[in-house]
Write a structure and sequence with these properties.
The complex is a heterodimer.
Chain A: H1 2-7, H2 14-34, E1 42-47, E2 50-56, E3 60-66, E4 71-77, E5 80-85, H3 92-95, E6 105-108, E7 113-118
Antiparallel strand pairs in A: 1-2, 1-7, 3-4, 4-5, 6-7
Chain B: H1 10-31, H2 44-54, H3 57-75, H4 81-100, H5 110-133, H6 143-170
Helix pairs in contact in B: 1-2, 1-3, 2-3, 2-6, 3-4, 4-5, 5-6
The chains are: A alpha+beta, B mainly alpha.
Chain lengths: 129, 171
């Protein structure tokens, strides 16, 4: 049945292709604009769920933080941030790489440290929706 | 006994038959669970498109509105938010079809009209949802999903209707 439907592509006329392309453009644009997370402005570092420090993301600096297992290096690089070294066994926090959007978070459970980016206006997630 | 002053024409019979099929398809669709909440293929629209192209737009409007009312009465959702959602979707689709029905048939076929109507349907539903049901801008986050589903189902509906119209003219 699908094969027969596909065979009927001959009925698609020039104007139809125009509308179809217009539709695809609309899908792409709406996805891009409506699903774009706001860029972050501040970095919050949490230890045991308490804010340890807040930094602006507009700088290039490496911070050293004491987790429960040792020293963690957090690199801030003009709008993005990552864990560059951590004494935890599996290094999930390092492998997560750079984050740059508001509400993105990296957690290092063995060290009980988490960092999260705060934007100018918080985006929607399942908690504040 | 006073004689009935309403003359029942062939046209009325035809509207009734087509509406009955559209209602039946709506009910079939209702009993199949949708994989994504809120996304429905809208198979009854095949009948409405068929009516508009085979007969005329006035008949399509009749069939479409009868379908909305009768389906909601059967399912018990008459005057509920679901009913108003489907009514506003239907009204916006019909409005878009009335506006665009004079597109040059040489370049634009049933597919264009179906896609335009499905987009108008989503638009109509989103207006109702934004104003009345969920008055929050967060719902626009869902818009890309609905536009994509409108595109897919609008295209499939148009192709099936086109096939139906072809089968009908061959006889």
């Amino acid at each position: 049945m699908i094969k027969k439907l596909l065979q009927s592509y001959k009925v698609i006329k020039a104007g139809d292709w125009f509308i179809i392309i217009l539709f695809c453009v609309l899908i792409v644009i709406s996805t891009k604009f409506l699903w774009a997370l706001p860029q972050g402005e501040y970095l919050e570092i949490y230890k045991n769920n308490e804010i340890l420090a807040t930094y602006t993301l507009n700088q290039k600096i490496t911070k050293i933080i004491n987790g429960t297992k040792g020293e963690i290096k957090i690199v801030i690089d003009n709008g993005r941030v990552r864990f560059s070294s951590s004494p935890c066994p599996k290094k999930y926090c390092i492998h997560q790489g750079w984050i740059n959007k508001a509400n993105q978070t990296i957690i290092c459970i063995p060290n009980q440290i988490s960092i999260s980016i705060v934007g100018p206006k918080s985006g929607y997630d399942s908690i504040n929706y | 006994m006073t004689p009935s002053t309403i003359k029942i024409t062939d046209r009325d019979h035809r509207i009734a038959k087509l509406s009955a099929i559209a209602v039946a398809l709506s009910l079939v669709e209702f009993f199949f669970p949708s994989p994504i909440p809120g996304v429905k293929p809208g198979i009854a629209n095949i009948i409405i498109l068929y009516t508009i192209f085979k007969f005329d737009i006035k008949m399509g409007i009749w069939v479409s509105l009868i379908r909305v009312f009768v389906t909601s009465i059967i399912l018990g959702s008459f005057l509920s938010p679901t009913f108003f959602l489907s009514l506003s979707g239907a009204l916006f689709s019909l409005l878009s079809l009335i506006i665009f029905k004079n597109l040059n048939r040489k370049y634009f076929s049933i597919i264009s009209l179906s896609l335009i109507a499905s987009l108008a349907h989503i638009f109509g539903q989103f207006i109702i949802v934004r104003i009345w049901i969920i008055p929050h801008n967060g719902i626009f986050y869902l818009l890309p999903v609905f536009i994509l589903s409108a595109f897919i189902f609008g295209l499939v509906t148009a192709l099936i209707t086109n096939k139906l119209l072809q089968l009908n003219t061959k006889k």
